[in-house]
Amino acid sequence: MYLVALAAVILAARQNPDHVFGFQMFNESSRLRIELFRRVRGAPNGELVKVVDGTWQARDRRGKLRTFSYHDRIRDRTLGKLDQSVHASYGLDGQLFRLKLALEDVLSHTRDDRETKALVAVVETVKNVRPGPQVRVTAVRR
Amino acid sequence: MSLRARFDEQGDGYVFGLARVAFALLLTLQTWRLLQNTLARGYFGDRFHLPLLPDAFVPSAGVFLGLLGLQLALGALAVGGWFSREALALHALLGIHWLLCDRLQYHNNRFALCLLAFLCAFTPCDRSCLFFRGRAHTLPAEERRGATWARHLIALQISAIYFSSGSGKLLDPDWFGGQTMLVRFTDGSEKLAQHGWPIPEWSIGLASAPWFASVASKSAILLELSLALGLWWRRTRVVALWAGVVFHFGIEVSSRVELFSWLMAAGYLAAFVRPELRERTLLIDPDWRFARALQRAVPLLDWLARLKLETGQGGQAGPVVFVDRAGERVTGLAAAAGMARVLPAFFIFWGPLALLSKLTARTVSRS
To answer: What ipTM describes this predicted complex?
Structure first.
């Protein structure tokens, strides 16, 4: 029974983007650099507004200007570092998968922000030293 | 050995007691770090986390801290030897639960530690290293015996770790081709240089050479896959164990892998050290000063109780004669290799000593 469970866990882990429970040691030497932007109401042509130092100001439902911070929710060693190149532990795919969920989490915890329609992370990727594609990860407020 | 025989196997619990203490200390250290991290950075549930379990199973901050306290208490019980198997199993299960509560906290070594410690709780690990038990910390030999089938599951778990890691790298073109290793080598050289370590020019050249990274990658993959299999056969086991120790020693000094190296050492202890004690003998000739010094040192270093010490009758083949399990008597380098094989603190020297003793023996027989 233990053998079957162990094999199932390891095989299932290979399907996960971050391979958790899969014993994939040192799977990549990749890096990523996350730049965070907001898509705000009324911006011309859906232009993105850069988020500096992880914080931004926006009006709440009463029209009062408030400060919001990405770091209030995201303190992970990889995803919590904006505008700097960091090691993508457990691989690029794993970190991009987690980033999408992180952005959705931030949006769900900044409901007072009545201006931000979406958070967009523009991610520079480097997979094992070779420059990879620039990836856009978007979370839209529902 | 057939599957049935492995399941019915009985053995001395002494070594498992040592493994229990090792696993319990590692689990406690892991829990202590988690507690420190929580106190310094806040409760993980109050920030972005990724539970694999339904939210109802993720505790509140207060309950989480309380359970961490309970884990520390369980760690003390498991180390001390009071309800130690139950404490070890529960501690490990709580550790797995935290990983299921937040996959951001997942690390392979943390998961492996919980699994190996949990399996160790099914061995007769509660019959030695009983520090709550007055002066006699170990039960008498006849009371220490118990079913040791769980050690084969520990062995299987260790093999699964090597196999999964090695096969994952084998199927990854960047790993197999050496690219991933090249990055690690060059990063490592840069870090050493930043910390002011003197690095010879030739080693920098080697670390940045793609061919070297390619060879190193393939060697690492081959080693991991060989370990997955080699630990199972009696003929290859000691070589595999030695290669594994050297491999993990290398990882420990070159990478940050938390408790992984220590965990594998404890895993080797539980899975691959024969439960039977004192199957080998060291014959000491007391006329030799060196031999007398060894007679005093060996009991301090023989943590796994492998050796029976006997005083020779004089006129023996050398100051120190090592008698192995089959009764074969060896002296000199071969005796040194035999001792390195059974004394954990010197096991890393077993490989070169065994090789040297074989080469010397061949030279002698040829001359």
So the answer is: 0.90
